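As described in the Methods, two query proteins were run sequentially through the folding procedure within a single session, without resetting any intermediate state between them. The first query and its resulting C-alpha coordinates are shown here.
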Amino acid sequence: MQKLYSGRNINLQALAQEINSILLEEGWESSVQPSMMNPQYQDFVIRGLKKGHLHHAEELIVRLTGNPTEFRIIIEEEHIGPLGRELIDRRLIKQIDKEINDGLFDMATLQPSFQQPVQSMPMSTQPTVQPSLQQGGQQIRCPACGALNPPGSKFCSNCGSKLM
Protein backbone atom coordinates (compact mmCIF):
# COMPACT_ATOMS: atom_id res chain seq x y z
CA MET A 1 0.00 0.00 0.00
CA GLN A 2 1.26 3.49 -0.73
CA LYS A 3 -0.07 7.00 -0.51
CA LEU A 4 1.23 10.19 -2.12
CA TYR A 5 1.08 13.52 -0.28
CA SER A 6 1.80 16.88 -1.86
CA GLY A 7 1.17 20.57 -1.36
CA ARG A 8 2.39 20.90 2.23
CA ASN A 9 5.85 21.54 3.68
CA ILE A 10 6.16 18.57 6.06
CA ASN A 11 8.90 17.75 8.55
CA LEU A 12 9.44 14.14 7.44
CA GLN A 13 11.71 13.34 10.38
CA ALA A 14 8.97 14.36 12.85
CA LEU A 15 6.43 12.32 10.87
CA ALA A 16 8.72 9.26 10.96
CA GLN A 17 9.11 9.67 14.73
CA GLU A 18 5.32 9.87 15.13
CA ILE A 19 4.78 6.66 13.13
CA ASN A 20 7.44 4.98 15.27
CA SER A 21 5.70 6.25 18.45
CA ILE A 22 2.36 4.83 17.30
CA LEU A 23 3.94 1.41 16.75
CA LEU A 24 5.65 1.52 20.15
CA GLU A 25 2.39 2.54 21.88
CA GLU A 26 0.68 -0.47 20.30
CA GLY A 27 3.30 -2.87 21.69
CA TRP A 28 5.44 -3.31 18.59
CA GLU A 29 9.23 -3.39 18.61
CA SER A 30 10.04 -0.49 16.31
CA SER A 31 12.89 1.70 15.11
CA VAL A 32 13.44 4.55 12.65
CA GLN A 33 16.34 4.37 10.23
CA PRO A 34 17.17 7.37 8.06
CA SER A 35 18.40 6.00 4.74
CA MET A 36 19.25 9.21 2.95
CA MET A 37 19.21 12.72 4.38
CA ASN A 38 19.47 15.90 2.36
CA PRO A 39 17.11 18.87 2.03
CA GLN A 40 15.98 17.90 -1.48
CA TYR A 41 15.27 14.21 -0.87
CA GLN A 42 14.73 12.28 2.35
CA ASP A 43 14.17 8.61 3.02
CA PHE A 44 13.14 7.06 6.37
CA VAL A 45 12.41 3.41 7.07
CA ILE A 46 10.36 2.49 10.15
CA ARG A 47 10.51 -1.22 10.95
CA GLY A 48 7.97 -2.76 13.29
CA LEU A 49 7.87 -6.29 14.63
CA LYS A 50 5.24 -7.80 16.90
CA LYS A 51 5.69 -11.28 18.22
CA GLY A 52 2.56 -13.31 18.80
CA HIS A 53 1.66 -16.76 20.03
CA LEU A 54 3.64 -19.81 18.94
CA HIS A 55 6.52 -17.71 17.59
CA HIS A 56 4.27 -16.08 15.00
CA ALA A 57 5.57 -12.61 14.16
CA GLU A 58 3.95 -9.75 12.29
CA GLU A 59 6.33 -7.47 10.43
CA LEU A 60 5.58 -4.01 9.15
CA ILE A 61 7.86 -1.70 7.17
CA VAL A 62 6.77 1.90 6.66
CA ARG A 63 8.88 4.00 4.33
CA LEU A 64 8.69 7.79 3.98
CA THR A 65 10.42 8.90 0.82
CA GLY A 66 10.54 12.17 -1.11
CA ASN A 67 10.91 15.78 -0.17
CA PRO A 68 8.98 17.90 2.37
CA THR A 69 6.49 19.15 -0.26
CA GLU A 70 5.90 15.83 -2.07
CA PHE A 71 6.46 12.47 -0.45
CA ARG A 72 5.11 8.93 -0.31
CA ILE A 73 4.22 6.69 2.59
CA ILE A 74 4.80 3.10 1.52
CA ILE A 75 3.60 0.29 3.79
CA GLU A 76 4.91 -3.22 3.34
CA GLU A 77 3.57 -5.97 5.55
CA GLU A 78 4.29 -9.60 6.21
CA HIS A 79 2.16 -12.08 8.17
CA ILE A 80 -0.22 -9.34 9.32
CA GLY A 81 -3.27 -10.61 11.18
CA PRO A 82 -6.56 -8.86 12.01
CA LEU A 83 -5.05 -6.81 14.86
CA GLY A 84 -2.14 -5.69 12.70
CA ARG A 85 -4.57 -4.79 9.90
CA GLU A 86 -6.63 -2.72 12.38
CA LEU A 87 -3.45 -0.90 13.44
CA ILE A 88 -2.58 -0.09 9.83
CA ASP A 89 -6.10 1.05 8.88
CA ARG A 90 -7.12 2.88 12.04
CA ARG A 91 -3.95 4.24 13.59
CA LEU A 92 -1.38 4.58 10.86
CA ILE A 93 -3.48 5.63 7.90
CA LYS A 94 -6.39 7.52 9.48
CA GLN A 95 -4.47 9.12 12.35
CA ILE A 96 -1.49 10.15 10.23
CA ASP A 97 -3.81 11.55 7.52
CA LYS A 98 -5.64 13.61 10.15
CA GLU A 99 -2.42 14.86 11.76
CA ILE A 100 -0.94 15.84 8.38
CA ASN A 101 -4.17 17.62 7.36
CA ASP A 102 -4.32 19.37 10.75
CA GLY A 103 -0.83 20.76 10.10
CA LEU A 104 0.86 18.94 12.98
CA PHE A 105 4.00 18.27 10.93
CA ASP A 106 4.09 21.50 8.90
CA MET A 107 7.54 23.07 8.83
CA ALA A 108 6.04 26.46 9.71
CA THR A 109 4.92 25.10 13.11
CA LEU A 110 8.22 23.32 13.74
CA GLN A 111 10.67 26.20 13.40
CA PRO A 112 13.66 26.51 15.73
CA SER A 113 13.06 28.52 18.88
CA PHE A 114 14.89 31.78 19.18
CA GLN A 115 15.21 33.80 22.36
CA GLN A 116 14.04 37.38 22.04
CA PRO A 117 17.00 39.65 22.79
CA VAL A 118 16.71 41.83 25.86
CA GLN A 119 16.93 45.51 24.94
CA SER A 120 19.89 47.36 26.40
CA MET A 121 19.25 49.01 29.75
CA PRO A 122 21.51 50.27 32.46
CA MET A 123 23.01 47.26 34.30
CA SER A 124 21.20 47.99 37.55
CA THR A 125 17.73 47.86 35.95
CA GLN A 126 18.26 45.12 33.33
CA PRO A 127 15.92 42.20 34.02
CA THR A 128 17.26 38.71 34.53
CA VAL A 129 16.16 36.43 31.68
CA GLN A 130 16.18 32.74 32.44
CA PRO A 131 17.09 30.70 29.35
CA SER A 132 14.31 28.18 29.98
CA LEU A 133 11.53 30.78 29.99
CA GLN A 134 9.82 32.46 27.07
CA GLN A 135 6.76 34.67 26.85
CA GLY A 136 3.71 32.49 27.39
CA GLY A 137 5.31 29.68 29.41
CA GLN A 138 8.29 27.44 29.90
CA GLN A 139 10.27 26.09 26.96
CA ILE A 140 10.47 22.33 26.52
CA ARG A 141 13.87 20.63 26.44
CA CYS A 142 14.13 17.73 23.99
CA PRO A 143 15.01 14.47 25.77
CA ALA A 144 16.89 13.22 22.69
CA CYS A 145 19.13 16.16 21.74
CA GLY A 146 18.66 18.73 24.52
CA ALA A 147 17.44 21.58 22.26
CA LEU A 148 14.97 24.10 23.70
CA ASN A 149 11.58 24.26 22.00
CA PRO A 150 8.70 26.75 22.27
CA PRO A 151 5.94 26.05 24.81
CA GLY A 152 3.30 23.68 23.44
CA SER A 153 5.64 22.07 20.87
CA LYS A 154 4.88 18.42 20.14
CA PHE A 155 8.11 17.68 18.26
CA CYS A 156 11.67 18.92 18.60
CA SER A 157 12.52 21.65 16.11
CA ASN A 158 16.12 20.39 16.00
CA CYS A 159 15.89 16.60 15.67
CA GLY A 160 12.14 15.89 15.18
CA SER A 161 11.79 13.68 18.27
CA LYS A 162 8.43 13.60 20.04
CA LEU A 163 8.40 15.82 23.12
CA MET A 164 6.78 14.52 26.32
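Immediately afterward, the second query was submitted; its sequence and C-alpha coordinates are:
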Amino acid sequence: MYKSLRVLIGFAILCLAHAAQAQNIGNTPYSRYGLGEYNYNLGNVRNAGMAGVGISAGNSFQANTANPALLYYNSITVFDMGVAGQLKTIKNSAEKQTDGNANLYNLTLAVPVSKRWSSAIGLRPYSVVNYEARTTSSLPSNPRATIQQQYLGEGGISEAYFSHGVKIADGLTIGGSASYLFGAITKESASVVQDDSLAAIGSEKVVYNERIRYENFIFRAGANYRKQIKDKSYLSAGAVYSFGTDLDATRRSSYERRTLSDNILDDNILPDSSESSVNLPPSLHAGLTFDNGKNLTIGADFYSQKWSEFRNFSGESELGDSYRVALGGEYTPNANSIDNFFARVTYRAGVYYGDTPYSARGESIKDKGITTGFTMPLGRSTIYDLYQLNAAFGYGSRGTTDNNLIKENYFQFSVGFTVNSRWFIKRRID
Protein backbone atom coordinates (compact mmCIF):
# COMPACT_ATOMS: atom_id res chain seq x y z
CA MET A 1 0.00 0.00 0.00
CA TYR A 2 2.71 2.47 0.99
CA LYS A 3 4.41 2.09 -2.39
CA SER A 4 1.13 2.89 -4.19
CA LEU A 5 0.46 5.84 -1.93
CA ARG A 6 3.95 7.22 -2.54
CA VAL A 7 3.38 6.96 -6.29
CA LEU A 8 0.08 8.88 -6.02
CA ILE A 9 1.56 11.59 -3.83
CA GLY A 10 4.57 11.90 -6.13
CA PHE A 11 2.31 12.32 -9.15
CA ALA A 12 0.26 14.91 -7.29
CA ILE A 13 3.37 16.91 -6.41
CA LEU A 14 4.37 16.97 -10.08
CA CYS A 15 0.95 18.46 -10.84
CA LEU A 16 1.20 21.21 -8.21
CA ALA A 17 3.01 23.75 -10.37
CA HIS A 18 0.40 23.38 -13.10
CA ALA A 19 -2.49 23.31 -10.63
CA ALA A 20 -1.39 26.59 -9.07
CA GLN A 21 -2.68 28.42 -12.15
CA ALA A 22 -4.72 25.95 -14.22
CA GLN A 23 -8.25 25.54 -12.96
CA ASN A 24 -11.17 23.40 -13.99
CA ILE A 25 -13.78 25.91 -15.06
CA GLY A 26 -13.91 26.50 -18.81
CA ASN A 27 -14.04 29.57 -21.01
CA THR A 28 -16.71 32.04 -19.96
CA PRO A 29 -17.14 35.70 -20.97
CA TYR A 30 -18.51 36.50 -17.50
CA SER A 31 -15.11 35.74 -15.93
CA ARG A 32 -14.09 39.16 -17.23
CA TYR A 33 -15.62 40.68 -14.10
CA GLY A 34 -14.24 40.65 -10.57
CA LEU A 35 -11.72 37.90 -9.91
CA GLY A 36 -13.31 35.59 -12.46
CA GLU A 37 -15.45 32.50 -12.10
CA TYR A 38 -15.81 31.56 -8.42
CA ASN A 39 -15.48 27.92 -7.30
CA TYR A 40 -18.59 27.10 -5.26
CA ASN A 41 -17.48 23.57 -4.33
CA LEU A 42 -15.20 23.59 -1.29
CA GLY A 43 -15.23 19.79 -1.32
CA ASN A 44 -14.14 17.16 -3.81
CA VAL A 45 -15.53 14.89 -6.54
CA ARG A 46 -17.93 13.30 -4.06
CA ASN A 47 -19.55 16.68 -3.38
CA ALA A 48 -19.59 17.54 -7.10
CA GLY A 49 -21.83 14.51 -7.71
CA MET A 50 -24.33 15.93 -5.19
CA ALA A 51 -24.41 19.45 -6.73
CA GLY A 52 -21.81 20.64 -4.22
CA VAL A 53 -23.77 19.51 -1.14
CA GLY A 54 -21.50 18.65 1.79
CA ILE A 55 -21.55 21.33 4.51
CA SER A 56 -23.27 18.93 6.93
CA ALA A 57 -22.76 15.60 5.11
CA GLY A 58 -19.88 13.89 6.85
CA ASN A 59 -18.31 10.75 5.40
CA SER A 60 -15.80 8.39 7.01
CA PHE A 61 -14.10 7.37 3.75
CA GLN A 62 -14.00 10.69 1.84
CA ALA A 63 -12.05 13.81 2.79
CA ASN A 64 -14.55 16.19 4.42
CA THR A 65 -13.07 19.48 3.21
CA ALA A 66 -16.33 21.30 2.48
CA ASN A 67 -16.67 21.95 6.22
CA PRO A 68 -13.54 21.67 8.40
CA ALA A 69 -15.71 20.67 11.35
CA LEU A 70 -16.50 17.40 9.52
CA LEU A 71 -12.83 16.39 9.39
CA TYR A 72 -13.36 14.74 12.77
CA TYR A 73 -15.18 11.91 10.96
CA ASN A 74 -11.98 11.07 9.01
CA SER A 75 -10.66 8.66 11.62
CA ILE A 76 -8.15 7.12 9.18
CA THR A 77 -5.73 8.76 6.76
CA VAL A 78 -7.36 9.85 3.49
CA PHE A 79 -5.53 10.88 0.33
CA ASP A 80 -7.76 12.34 -2.38
CA MET A 81 -6.95 13.67 -5.84
CA GLY A 82 -9.26 14.67 -8.68
CA VAL A 83 -9.24 16.16 -12.15
CA ALA A 84 -12.13 17.94 -13.80
CA GLY A 85 -13.13 19.70 -16.97
CA GLN A 86 -16.02 20.67 -19.16
CA LEU A 87 -17.39 21.15 -22.62
CA LYS A 88 -19.25 24.41 -23.11
CA THR A 89 -21.36 26.01 -25.83
CA ILE A 90 -21.46 29.81 -25.73
CA LYS A 91 -24.05 31.60 -27.82
CA ASN A 92 -25.93 34.83 -28.33
CA SER A 93 -28.81 35.63 -30.65
CA ALA A 94 -26.58 35.37 -33.75
CA GLU A 95 -23.50 33.20 -33.08
CA LYS A 96 -22.26 30.30 -31.00
CA GLN A 97 -19.02 28.46 -30.28
CA THR A 98 -17.95 25.33 -28.39
CA ASP A 99 -14.78 24.70 -26.41
CA GLY A 100 -13.53 22.72 -23.43
CA ASN A 101 -10.66 21.94 -21.09
CA ALA A 102 -9.54 19.70 -18.21
CA ASN A 103 -7.13 20.26 -15.30
CA LEU A 104 -6.28 19.18 -11.76
CA TYR A 105 -9.29 19.89 -9.53
CA ASN A 106 -8.40 19.05 -5.93
CA LEU A 107 -5.59 17.56 -3.90
CA THR A 108 -6.12 16.62 -0.25
CA LEU A 109 -4.39 14.71 2.53
CA ALA A 110 -6.41 14.27 5.74
CA VAL A 111 -4.75 12.72 8.80
CA PRO A 112 -6.26 11.93 12.24
CA VAL A 113 -4.19 13.52 15.00
CA SER A 114 -6.09 11.95 17.91
CA LYS A 115 -9.45 10.35 18.60
CA ARG A 116 -11.05 13.80 18.75
CA TRP A 117 -8.99 15.74 16.23
CA SER A 118 -8.20 15.42 12.50
CA SER A 119 -6.34 17.75 10.14
CA ALA A 120 -6.07 18.21 6.38
CA ILE A 121 -3.90 20.04 3.89
CA GLY A 122 -4.83 20.57 0.26
CA LEU A 123 -5.01 22.63 -2.88
CA ARG A 124 -8.09 23.69 -4.85
CA PRO A 125 -9.13 26.46 -7.25
CA TYR A 126 -10.63 29.64 -5.81
CA SER A 127 -11.40 31.39 -9.11
CA VAL A 128 -10.47 31.30 -12.77
CA VAL A 129 -10.37 33.84 -15.61
CA ASN A 130 -10.63 32.54 -19.16
CA TYR A 131 -12.35 34.57 -21.86
CA GLU A 132 -11.89 35.97 -25.35
CA ALA A 133 -14.38 38.37 -26.92
CA ARG A 134 -14.50 40.46 -30.07
CA THR A 135 -16.99 43.13 -31.09
CA THR A 136 -17.23 44.95 -34.42
CA SER A 137 -18.99 48.23 -35.10
CA SER A 138 -18.92 50.91 -37.76
CA LEU A 139 -17.62 54.44 -37.33
CA PRO A 140 -20.48 56.99 -37.57
CA SER A 141 -18.16 59.48 -39.28
CA ASN A 142 -17.05 56.98 -41.95
CA PRO A 143 -19.42 54.20 -43.05
CA ARG A 144 -16.59 52.42 -44.89
CA ALA A 145 -14.52 52.10 -41.72
CA THR A 146 -15.07 49.61 -38.89
CA ILE A 147 -13.60 49.33 -35.43
CA GLN A 148 -12.95 45.92 -33.90
CA GLN A 149 -12.49 45.70 -30.13
CA GLN A 150 -10.74 42.67 -28.69
CA TYR A 151 -10.70 41.49 -25.06
CA LEU A 152 -8.69 38.59 -23.67
CA GLY A 153 -8.19 37.30 -20.14
CA GLU A 154 -6.61 34.26 -18.49
CA GLY A 155 -5.26 33.08 -15.16
CA GLY A 156 -6.87 32.66 -11.79
CA ILE A 157 -6.42 32.31 -8.05
CA SER A 158 -5.54 29.08 -6.24
CA GLU A 159 -6.14 28.18 -2.61
CA ALA A 160 -3.71 26.18 -0.46
CA TYR A 161 -5.38 25.36 2.85
CA PHE A 162 -4.64 23.84 6.27
CA SER A 163 -7.76 22.70 8.14
CA HIS A 164 -8.64 21.17 11.50
CA GLY A 165 -11.75 19.51 12.92
CA VAL A 166 -12.29 18.75 16.62
CA LYS A 167 -15.03 16.96 18.56
CA ILE A 168 -16.33 19.15 21.41
CA ALA A 169 -19.20 17.02 22.71
CA ASP A 170 -21.41 14.18 21.54
CA GLY A 171 -22.58 15.15 18.06
CA LEU A 172 -20.93 18.60 18.14
CA THR A 173 -17.77 19.31 16.17
CA ILE A 174 -16.06 22.57 15.27
CA GLY A 175 -13.31 23.39 12.82
CA GLY A 176 -11.29 26.06 11.16
CA SER A 177 -9.00 26.57 8.20
CA ALA A 178 -6.32 28.99 7.10
CA SER A 179 -5.90 29.37 3.35
CA TYR A 180 -3.28 31.13 1.32
CA LEU A 181 -4.75 32.63 -1.84
CA PHE A 182 -2.30 33.29 -4.65
CA GLY A 183 -2.33 33.70 -8.39
CA ALA A 184 -2.19 36.13 -11.28
CA ILE A 185 -4.71 37.38 -13.83
CA THR A 186 -3.64 38.72 -17.22
CA LYS A 187 -5.94 40.89 -19.31
CA GLU A 188 -5.51 42.42 -22.75
CA SER A 189 -7.59 44.90 -24.71
CA ALA A 190 -7.08 46.24 -28.23
CA SER A 191 -8.91 48.29 -30.84
CA VAL A 192 -8.30 47.94 -34.55
CA VAL A 193 -9.65 50.40 -37.13
CA GLN A 194 -10.06 48.99 -40.64
CA ASP A 195 -10.82 51.13 -43.70
CA ASP A 196 -10.56 49.66 -47.20
CA SER A 197 -10.13 53.17 -48.65
CA LEU A 198 -6.82 53.58 -46.81
CA ALA A 199 -4.30 50.87 -47.66
CA ALA A 200 -1.90 51.62 -44.80
CA ILE A 201 -4.39 51.70 -41.95
CA GLY A 202 -5.08 48.59 -39.91
CA SER A 203 -1.79 46.78 -40.61
CA GLU A 204 -0.98 46.75 -36.90
CA LYS A 205 -2.62 47.35 -33.55
CA VAL A 206 -1.81 48.67 -30.09
CA VAL A 207 -2.62 46.34 -27.20
CA TYR A 208 -2.97 47.30 -23.55
CA ASN A 209 -1.62 44.49 -21.37
CA GLU A 210 -1.92 44.22 -17.60
CA ARG A 211 -0.99 41.48 -15.17
CA ILE A 212 -2.19 41.63 -11.56
CA ARG A 213 -0.81 39.25 -8.95
CA TYR A 214 -2.89 38.58 -5.84
CA GLU A 215 -1.95 37.05 -2.51
CA ASN A 216 -3.04 36.95 1.12
CA PHE A 217 -4.67 34.70 3.69
CA ILE A 218 -8.34 33.91 4.17
CA PHE A 219 -9.81 32.21 7.24
CA ARG A 220 -12.89 30.04 7.66
CA ALA A 221 -14.72 28.74 10.73
CA GLY A 222 -17.11 25.80 10.69
CA ALA A 223 -19.42 23.90 13.00
CA ASN A 224 -21.65 20.85 12.73
CA TYR A 225 -24.15 19.15 15.04
CA ARG A 226 -25.45 15.64 14.38
CA LYS A 227 -28.27 14.18 16.46
CA GLN A 228 -30.14 10.89 16.39
CA ILE A 229 -33.82 11.71 15.93
CA LYS A 230 -35.06 8.11 16.03
CA ASP A 231 -33.79 4.59 15.47
CA LYS A 232 -31.39 4.59 12.47
CA SER A 233 -32.21 8.22 11.63
CA TYR A 234 -29.90 11.18 12.11
CA LEU A 235 -30.17 14.89 11.40
CA SER A 236 -27.14 17.13 10.92
CA ALA A 237 -26.86 20.90 10.69
CA GLY A 238 -23.66 22.65 9.70
CA ALA A 239 -22.29 26.02 8.64
CA VAL A 240 -19.07 27.54 7.36
CA TYR A 241 -18.31 31.24 7.62
CA SER A 242 -15.56 32.72 5.44
CA PHE A 243 -14.16 35.94 6.86
CA GLY A 244 -13.64 38.87 4.56
CA THR A 245 -10.11 39.81 3.63
CA ASP A 246 -8.08 42.24 1.53
CA LEU A 247 -5.90 40.64 -1.11
CA ASP A 248 -2.59 42.37 -1.76
CA ALA A 249 -2.44 43.21 -5.46
CA THR A 250 0.50 44.24 -7.63
CA ARG A 251 -0.21 45.41 -11.18
CA ARG A 252 2.28 45.63 -14.02
CA SER A 253 1.03 47.12 -17.26
CA SER A 254 2.33 48.30 -20.63
CA TYR A 255 1.32 48.85 -24.22
CA GLU A 256 2.44 46.62 -27.07
CA ARG A 257 2.61 47.13 -30.83
CA ARG A 258 1.54 44.00 -32.68
CA THR A 259 0.67 42.92 -36.17
CA LEU A 260 -2.88 41.79 -36.82
CA SER A 261 -1.66 38.20 -36.46
CA ASP A 262 -0.36 39.06 -32.96
CA ASN A 263 3.34 39.10 -33.76
CA ILE A 264 4.94 41.49 -31.26
CA LEU A 265 6.73 44.51 -32.74
CA ASP A 266 7.39 46.39 -29.48
CA ASP A 267 6.42 44.92 -26.10
CA ASN A 268 7.39 47.57 -23.57
CA ILE A 269 5.72 50.91 -24.29
CA LEU A 270 4.93 53.13 -21.28
CA PRO A 271 5.52 50.43 -18.65
CA ASP A 272 3.94 51.02 -15.26
CA SER A 273 3.80 49.26 -11.89
CA SER A 274 1.48 49.96 -8.97
CA GLU A 275 0.15 48.34 -5.81
CA SER A 276 -3.30 48.24 -4.27
CA SER A 277 -5.65 45.81 -2.53
CA VAL A 278 -8.81 43.97 -3.49
CA ASN A 279 -11.59 43.51 -0.96
CA LEU A 280 -13.13 40.03 -0.68
CA PRO A 281 -16.47 40.10 1.16
CA PRO A 282 -17.41 37.43 3.75
CA SER A 283 -19.58 34.48 2.78
CA LEU A 284 -21.80 31.94 4.49
CA HIS A 285 -22.40 28.28 3.64
CA ALA A 286 -25.08 26.40 5.58
CA GLY A 287 -26.39 22.87 5.25
CA LEU A 288 -28.96 20.43 6.62
CA THR A 289 -28.61 16.66 6.14
CA PHE A 290 -30.58 13.51 6.91
CA ASP A 291 -28.89 10.10 7.01
CA ASN A 292 -29.65 6.62 8.27
CA GLY A 293 -26.15 6.04 9.63
CA LYS A 294 -25.48 3.37 7.04
CA ASN A 295 -26.06 3.84 3.32
CA LEU A 296 -28.35 6.84 2.67
CA THR A 297 -27.64 10.58 2.88
CA ILE A 298 -29.86 13.43 1.68
CA GLY A 299 -28.84 17.04 2.14
CA ALA A 300 -29.49 20.65 1.18
CA ASP A 301 -26.95 23.50 1.14
CA PHE A 302 -27.32 27.26 0.92
CA TYR A 303 -24.57 29.72 -0.02
CA SER A 304 -24.65 33.51 0.12
CA GLN A 305 -22.01 36.19 -0.47
CA LYS A 306 -22.35 39.96 -0.68
CA TRP A 307 -20.23 40.49 -3.77
CA SER A 308 -21.69 44.00 -3.98
CA GLU A 309 -19.10 44.87 -1.31
CA PHE A 310 -16.27 43.66 -3.58
CA ARG A 311 -13.81 46.36 -4.68
CA ASN A 312 -11.42 45.76 -7.55
CA PHE A 313 -7.88 47.08 -8.02
CA SER A 314 -9.17 50.56 -8.84
CA GLY A 315 -11.59 50.56 -5.88
CA GLU A 316 -14.66 50.11 -8.09
CA SER A 317 -17.68 47.92 -7.42
CA GLU A 318 -18.61 45.77 -10.43
CA LEU A 319 -20.48 42.77 -8.95
CA GLY A 320 -23.78 42.03 -7.26
CA ASP A 321 -24.84 39.81 -4.36
CA SER A 322 -25.08 36.11 -5.13
CA TYR A 323 -26.69 33.01 -3.67
CA ARG A 324 -26.91 29.33 -4.50
CA VAL A 325 -29.27 26.57 -3.33
CA ALA A 326 -28.39 22.90 -3.85
CA LEU A 327 -30.13 19.61 -3.06
CA GLY A 328 -28.32 16.28 -3.32
CA GLY A 329 -27.92 12.80 -1.94
CA GLU A 330 -26.06 9.50 -2.11
CA TYR A 331 -27.08 5.86 -1.71
CA THR A 332 -25.14 2.60 -1.43
CA PRO A 333 -27.33 -0.53 -1.97
CA ASN A 334 -25.12 -2.88 0.09
CA ALA A 335 -21.54 -1.92 0.95
CA ASN A 336 -20.82 -5.44 2.26
CA SER A 337 -22.14 -7.38 -0.73
CA ILE A 338 -19.82 -10.17 -1.88
CA ASP A 339 -21.44 -11.41 -5.09
CA ASN A 340 -22.78 -8.11 -6.50
CA PHE A 341 -20.17 -5.47 -7.32
CA PHE A 342 -22.72 -2.79 -8.29
CA ALA A 343 -24.39 -3.14 -4.87
CA ARG A 344 -21.15 -1.81 -3.35
CA VAL A 345 -21.14 1.27 -5.57
CA THR A 346 -22.32 4.58 -4.07
CA TYR A 347 -24.66 6.49 -6.40
CA ARG A 348 -25.20 10.27 -6.21
CA ALA A 349 -27.41 12.97 -7.73
CA GLY A 350 -28.21 16.63 -7.16
CA VAL A 351 -29.71 19.87 -8.49
CA TYR A 352 -28.74 23.51 -7.97
CA TYR A 353 -30.00 27.01 -8.75
CA GLY A 354 -28.77 30.48 -7.95
CA ASP A 355 -27.80 34.03 -8.81
CA THR A 356 -24.23 34.63 -9.95
CA PRO A 357 -22.44 37.89 -9.04
CA TYR A 358 -22.74 39.02 -12.67
CA SER A 359 -25.31 41.24 -14.32
CA ALA A 360 -25.49 42.78 -17.78
CA ARG A 361 -27.92 45.26 -19.33
CA GLY A 362 -30.18 45.03 -16.32
CA GLU A 363 -30.30 41.21 -16.41
CA SER A 364 -29.15 39.17 -13.42
CA ILE A 365 -27.23 36.12 -14.64
CA LYS A 366 -28.82 32.91 -13.29
CA ASP A 367 -27.09 29.54 -13.05
CA LYS A 368 -28.87 26.18 -12.77
CA GLY A 369 -28.11 22.54 -13.41
CA ILE A 370 -28.25 18.87 -12.42
CA THR A 371 -25.49 16.46 -11.40
CA THR A 372 -24.89 12.76 -10.93
CA GLY A 373 -21.95 10.65 -9.84
CA PHE A 374 -20.67 7.51 -8.19
CA THR A 375 -17.91 5.97 -6.08
CA MET A 376 -16.81 2.41 -6.77
CA PRO A 377 -14.33 0.32 -4.76
CA LEU A 378 -11.08 -0.71 -6.44
CA GLY A 379 -9.41 -4.04 -5.72
CA ARG A 380 -9.76 -5.89 -2.44
CA SER A 381 -10.42 -3.87 0.69
CA THR A 382 -8.67 -4.76 3.93
CA ILE A 383 -8.73 -3.43 7.48
CA TYR A 384 -5.69 -1.35 6.50
CA ASP A 385 -6.45 -0.09 2.98
CA LEU A 386 -9.43 0.99 0.88
CA TYR A 387 -9.14 2.31 -2.68
CA GLN A 388 -11.99 4.16 -4.42
CA LEU A 389 -12.69 5.61 -7.84
CA ASN A 390 -14.91 8.72 -7.83
CA ALA A 391 -16.68 10.31 -10.78
CA ALA A 392 -19.21 13.12 -11.20
CA PHE A 393 -21.07 14.58 -14.18
CA GLY A 394 -23.24 17.67 -14.53
CA TYR A 395 -25.20 19.62 -17.07
CA GLY A 396 -26.21 23.23 -16.58
CA SER A 397 -26.91 26.58 -18.16
CA ARG A 398 -26.10 30.15 -17.26
CA GLY A 399 -27.29 33.44 -18.65
CA THR A 400 -29.74 34.23 -21.45
CA THR A 401 -29.75 35.28 -25.11
CA ASP A 402 -32.34 38.01 -24.44
CA ASN A 403 -31.14 41.58 -25.08
CA ASN A 404 -28.27 40.12 -27.12
CA LEU A 405 -26.66 38.67 -23.99
CA ILE A 406 -24.65 35.46 -23.77
CA LYS A 407 -25.94 32.07 -22.68
CA GLU A 408 -23.68 29.20 -21.66
CA ASN A 409 -24.70 25.53 -21.81
CA TYR A 410 -22.07 23.31 -20.22
CA PHE A 411 -21.33 19.66 -19.51
CA GLN A 412 -18.96 19.14 -16.58
CA PHE A 413 -17.09 16.00 -15.61
CA SER A 414 -14.67 15.06 -12.83
CA VAL A 415 -12.77 11.92 -11.91
CA GLY A 416 -10.75 11.23 -8.78
CA PHE A 417 -9.06 8.60 -6.64
CA THR A 418 -9.31 8.19 -2.89
CA VAL A 419 -6.98 6.10 -0.76
CA ASN A 420 -7.94 5.27 2.84
CA SER A 421 -5.08 3.91 4.94
CA ARG A 422 -4.57 3.18 8.61
CA TRP A 423 -1.26 4.74 9.58
CA PHE A 424 0.77 4.37 12.78
CA ILE A 425 -0.49 0.85 13.49
CA LYS A 426 1.89 -1.29 15.56
CA ARG A 427 1.66 -4.75 14.02
CA ARG A 428 2.27 -7.74 16.31
CA ILE A 429 3.78 -11.11 15.43
CA ASP A 430 2.76 -13.98 17.70
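The CA atoms of residues 64 and 71 lie 5 Å apart. We note this only descriptively and draw no conclusion about the first query from it.
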